[in-house]
Amino acid sequence: MVEVKNLKKQYGDNIILKDINLHINRGEVVSLIGPSGSGKSTILRCIVDLESITSGEILIEGNNLTDKNVDKKIKKEILLKTGMVFQTFNLFPHLSVRNNIVKTLKLVKKIDTSEAETIAKKMLDLVGLSDKMNSFPNELSGGQKQRVAIARALALQPDILLFDEPTSALDPELVKEVLDIIRKLKEQKITMLIVSHEMNFVREISDRVVVMEKGKILETGTSQQIFENPSSQRVKEFLNTNS
Ligand SMILES: Nc1ncnc2c1ncn2[C@@H]1O[C@H](COP(=O)(O)OP(=O)(O)OP(=O)(O)O)[C@@H](O)[C@H]1O
Ligand SMILES: [Mg+2]
């Protein structure tokens, strides 16, 4: 689904990502963990083209997103295969919950209002928020806002959903409702790349876990390998202090 090859990212002289190789197979849930500043968000942002890369390649379903000669229209189509959910929700404050989804669908997919309304209803139902359709974002709890953001990302039918710490802006009692939605998406075999500090959740949900530090991948393995028998001492230490 997604293949990251020899990815390097530099801000001036500051090397943020050193030589990242990473792949996510269809239907797989992969989590990225590691200390603050290790480059997790930057990887996600490179995959959805919110950051330019210094060198390397990113392929989405075999399409080279980072090819300098790629046609703008084709690049847009490649990016439509990805959907991102941010820590801070990024909802449009002036639009109702329903219109956050409808307007996005109309803008991005150019479909008519009635079709967009049908999809919006279906997605809000999936995240358990049908009753909040006409509310505005400031009338919702953090957990509800994040569920709307997930519904909006899903409405565009991406082939892969990327989550950047989807629960870290939430009060502890609201975390569960968002994690429950992600569990439900896994049951539906949605491909996901998740950055999270919720170690118990990462352990439970991930098919594979990638551990990063200082712009490099320290170790990759199944959830069981990483959490029960990590090979590097540094990963052991990280998990001991964060679990
Ligand atoms: N726009 C930018 N300009 C310069 N440096 C940046 C920029 N964005 C990020 N960085 C640096 O890149 C490094 C990696 O940042 P990134 O946000 O990817 O880390 P992270 O692993 O997501 O951390 P956290 O767990 O705190 O979210 C950090 O050292 C950060 O200071
Ligand atoms: Mg981050």
What do you see in this structure?
The strands form 2 sheets. The chain has a 6-stranded mixed sheet, with helices on both faces. Strands 2-1-4-5 form a 4-stranded antiparallel sheet, with helices on one face. It contains 9 helices and 10 strands. Helices cover 40% and strands 25% of the residues. The two termini are 30 Å apart. It has a domain of 67 residues. It is α/β, with parallel strands linked by helices and 243 residues long. The longest helix has 16 residues. The structure holds adenosine-5'-triphosphate and magnesium ion.
Radius of gyration: 18 Å
Helix content: 25-40%
Shape: globular
- Tally of strands: 10
Fraction of residues in β-strands: 25-35%
Ligands in the structure? adenosine-5'-triphosphate, magnesium ion
| Secondary structure category | alpha/beta
Q: Provide the spatial order of strands within the biggest beta sheet.
A: 6-7-8-3-9-10
* Largest sheet report: 6 strands, mixed
